[in-house]
Amino acid sequence: MSLNYLTPEFKVLRDYDRCINCKVCMRQCANEVHSYDEDLDKMIADDYKCVNCQRCVVMCPTHALTIIKHPQVFRENANWTYDAIRDIYRQAETGGVLLSAMGNDRPYPIYWDKMVINASQVTNPSIDPLREPMELKIFIGRKPDKIELDENLNVKTKMPPQLKLNFPIMFSAMSYGSISYNAHASLARAAKELGIYYNTGEGGLHKDFRKYGENTIVQVASGRFGVDREYLKTAAAVEIKIGQGAKPGIGGHLPGEKVSEDISETRMIPVGSDAISPAPHHDIYSIEDLSQLIYSLKEATDYKKPVGVKIAAVNNVAAIASGIARAGADYIAIDGFRGGTGAAPKRIRDNVGIPIEFAIASVDSRLRSEGIRHTISLVAAGSIRNSADIIKAIALGADAVYIGSAALIAIGCHMCQQCNTGKCNWGIATQDPNLVKRLNPEIGYKRLINLITAWGHEIQEMLGGMGINDIESLKGNRLMLRGIGMTQKELDILGILAAGE
Amino acid sequence: MKKVYAKEEVCVGCKLCEVYCITSHSKYKDVLKAYKLDSTRPAPRIIIEEERPISFSLQCRHCDDAPCVKACITGAMQKDPETGVVTCDTDKCVGCWTCVLVCSFGAIVRDLNNKIASKCDLCAETGEPACVKNCPNEALVFTEGGI
Amino acid sequence: MDIVIIGNSAAMVGAVEAIRKHDKTSNITVISDEKYHVYSRPLISYYLADTVTEEKMAYRSKDFYQKNNVKTILGTKAVSVDENKKTVILENGDLVKYDKLLIATGGKPFIPPIDGLDKKNIQTFIKLDEAKKLKSSIKPNSKAVIVGGGLIGFKAAEGLHALGADVTIVELADRILSTILDNESASIVTKRLLKDGIKIKVGTTIDKIVGEDYVKEVHLKNGEVLPTDILIFAIGVTPNTDVVKGTSIKINRGILVDRNMKTNVDDVYAAGDVAEGFDMLLNSNRVVPIWPNAYIQGETAGLNMIGIENTTNGIFPMNSIGYKDTYIITAGIINPPDESYDVMVKADLDKNTYKKIVLKENNIVGFILINDVDRAGIYTGLIREKIDVTPFRNQLLKDDFGYINFPKDLRKSKMLGQEVR
């Protein structure tokens, strides 16, 4: 074996004054960092294996553990950075594509943080959401060109199918396979309790979760895993997945070893076979082809369910979105370049796609200019981190947002970005039954409810501050935003004024 | 009566229940001190069974018709007629292990340091079993009538 | 109603506690030739070895009789029963009337008819008074000979050794503890006793006792002569049925009882070491003279005496016994009588551990555990509840065998709320 050039990324600091040799850290680390040395009568750690998931830190009953960035450095070099050198070592060692997980972590500008939100002062007074009604409910789906009422003021117009959301938030597509059964159980149950939706991703719908069908969006992706009539019928809406923010333009690959009995049944593929999602849908090479699939799915669901299309945010996103709207989709989900994933080639994750902030603004502007904005709902995805990001997304023109990473963080994800290893110590991005059980869905769903409820309160506060009492009134209301530290071009694309203007 | 029940589906096998059981029955009611200072640190009163991926902890079931109480040769093992809690009077216990012989749950631990039978007392002093309170995944519940 | 209990030990307590759970008013009278507050018989060897004080031998608290409203006639022997007049006759001539009678007179030690029994320092070892006597006559380096290497002899040896005596056990069988151990396990235990200098003579027994006033020598059948200061007979215990001799109450080895612990005579019950009750493993009646059994039989008798129908599922032998750091737990049938039984064994003679499980068809019917005794009760439970062990048979001998090896349904039904008797 030749020398491995990689040095540890993290260092495990153990306070031996506090360590009681209880071995909880050892039992909880799937990476086998901790071990007990009988000769030394001490717990010891192998820094090389640590991914800084912090499971041991949180579980240690005496708070004896701290994990720090390993102090080992290379000679300072602004060009040949630590990561750049390590990536070369890894590839020289393995000859393989570098894999990564969760979202793009490169230091690109975060435009959410360059936008600030307005508030009312004196005129158009602010509203106190604790005292006055404040509507967060929204509907996803095509809206009719006009509404006709009968003599009793009842709506006469036949409404296209709509999804009703109690909060302008949904849980993003994350497949069973990329995340665990218990993670799905948590998301599904929380969606039901909250009156929102979760998304199966492209891995099919586990039979145990059919009972959550009314709060489920099912995906039809290029692999068509798990798609049958019942799958479509069970769901509240169907989403055609064209692309995803973390890896625009490429497909997916769930290795055969992860295709367990349960996953095989859910995905409708043989146990142990690789689950390959091709880069394109092999029956979609044009907007017309897409339209055909949209209408096939509508036909299959008796035109009772919205059919949406999810794409990654890329250069011509506005034109593509226009095409999708005209192809008959009821909503379009746009996933920005920070969107998460269970596994993606690192170079693609870190270099392909555009920020969701620009994508939403330009799509909304384009659809408005074409007079078809009302024909389709717009869902923003790709690293929504808090309630302010949601306010900003909606003010830029989104109807609602998808949250993926944030939902996983709520149920324990510590952003160690090792989903692709399948050894998620928090029981989320793993199929190892030893690890899956660490996520108790009873706890998980409550934490998700807490998060969304908390964000709901914050959104109400911010809306009230702006003097707005209905989230619908914020949609595309870009006057409520101002930019800081952006170029004029960036401000123009976002359609907002600079702070102070 | 309220008893401790284990949900094996979400037991993570960390054995924190054991740590807190020891702590709760040590003279210091603090993890660090129980482990670092208590020279007569008690044995855990919990049995943890593990064969990955299944694991669970098992405590005395405080049986209605407790065989250990009937079999005890010294009268140390008693069931409180009011609370139903089965406890071992460690002053009387001589470590004959007849209770170990008859407990069909295997829930009585031999504390060989102190040569006494050690068993779950539901942390009667504090009112809430320490194992339940400190289970990080809510895999232990303290409730009436089973789960 | 007048309930009379002859005997003042485990079966009595089982009966009294069961009766008083339901019946606070009936009169209960306890008669015993021993003068003591109810104490734990098995503790006499601990008392002998000075690990337990007399005070701590109390099996129930000092207010037991008072709290349970029990009248006691202690230190007076019941000599006979008149089942027609429903009367117990005491040694002082007093008559005690009963409506319901429980005979719980326990066992009496067996002494073989040999020459020299009239010498001093010869005794048996089952009562507190005998332990006291032994304790007062033993001195460091006293030469103690124990005839009988069964449970009582074994515990007497431990106690006497602790007091510094030079102990020899004489056992007729080819091994000590022959009723509860097989050859392999007995050899582990023997090895441990020998290590402490306790001498063991097997395959022989006492022929005669030689001495003047005091015992001086014991001659064995094999010709050996053992210098002896104290001789203890621990050959065995037979049911103490004296009190019912000459009555119509049926006796086989012990007083025959049905599964309600009732004798063939109405209103007369028997429990504990004097009773010959149903053995669920032999599927026939048998005297099982062990403490837990006495309590359970007393409890059953007590309930039936006050009109609450209750049957025991039957009992079977089981013992937990030890010598210092050597622990022995056994139950049921440990030496299979014929080919219809299966035996599984795991032994590690370096670690002095031994695990033997005896199965009949799909059920465990007995086991021997030496040293590796933790969670032994799981096996006892499998015997008691006659659980089909087929699904986990090949795991029974595992070091950490437990509920995890049960089928999930069985495990959950046991652990998650459904209590099992």
From TrEMBL, chain A:
Query: Which principal EC class is assigned to this enzyme?
Result: oxidoreductase
Matches recorded under SUPFAM superfamilies: 4Fe-4S ferredoxins, FMN-linked oxidoreductases
Which Pfam families is this protein grouped with? Fer4_7, Glu_synthase
Q: Which UniProt keywords apply?
A: Amino-acid biosynthesis, Glutamate biosynthesis, Iron, Iron-sulfur, Metal-binding, Oxidoreductase
What sequence ranges are listed for the domain 4Fe-4S ferredoxin-type?
Answer: 10-39, 41-70
Cite the EC number: 1.4.1.13
**Record's catalysed reaction(s):** 2 L-glutamate + NADP(+) = L-glutamine + 2-oxoglutarate + NADPH + H(+)
The entry assigns this protein to a family as follows: Belongs to the glutamate synthase family.
Protein name, per record: glutamate synthase (NADPH)
Automatic annotation (TrEMBL), chain B:
Report keywords, A-Z.
Answer: 4Fe-4S, Electron transport, Iron, Iron-sulfur, Metal-binding, Repeat, Transport
- Top-rank lineage group of the source organism: Bacteria
Q: Which residues form the 4Fe-4S ferredoxin-type domain?
A: 2-31, 84-113
Whether Electron transport counts among this entry's keywords is yes
Keyword Hydrolase among UniProt keywords = no
Tell me which positions the record assigns to the signal sequence: none
Q: Where are the transmembrane segments?
A: none
The protein's name in its UniProt record:
Carbon-monoxide dehydrogenase iron sulfur subunit
What are the top taxonomic ranks of the organism? Bacteria, Bacillati, Bacillota, Clostridia, Thermoanaerobacterales
From TrEMBL, chain C:
Matching SUPFAM superfamilies? FAD/NAD(P)-binding domain
Span of domain FAD/NAD(P)-binding: 1-298
- Top-rank taxon of the source lineage equals Bacteria
Please name the Gene3D superfamilies in this protein's record. 3.30.390.30, FAD/NAD(P)-binding domain
Report whether Flavoprotein shows up as a keyword of the record: yes
The organism's taxonomic lineage, starting at the top: Bacteria, Bacillati, Bacillota, Clostridia, Thermoanaerobacterales
Record keywords? FAD, Flavoprotein
Q: Which cofactor does it need?
A: FAD
| Ranges of residues in domain NADH-rubredoxin oxidoreductase C-terminal | 317-387
The transmembrane residues are none
Q: Which organism is it from?
A: Thermoanaerobacterium butyriciformans
Entry-linked Pfam families = Pyr_redox_2, Rubredoxin_C
Looking up InterPro entries in the UniProt record yields: FAD-bd_OxRdtase, FAD/NAD-bd_sf, FAD/NAD-binding_dom, FAD/NAD-linked_Rdtase_dimer_sf, Rubredoxin_C
Protein name per Swiss-Prot or TrEMBL: NAD(P)H-nitrite reductase large subunit
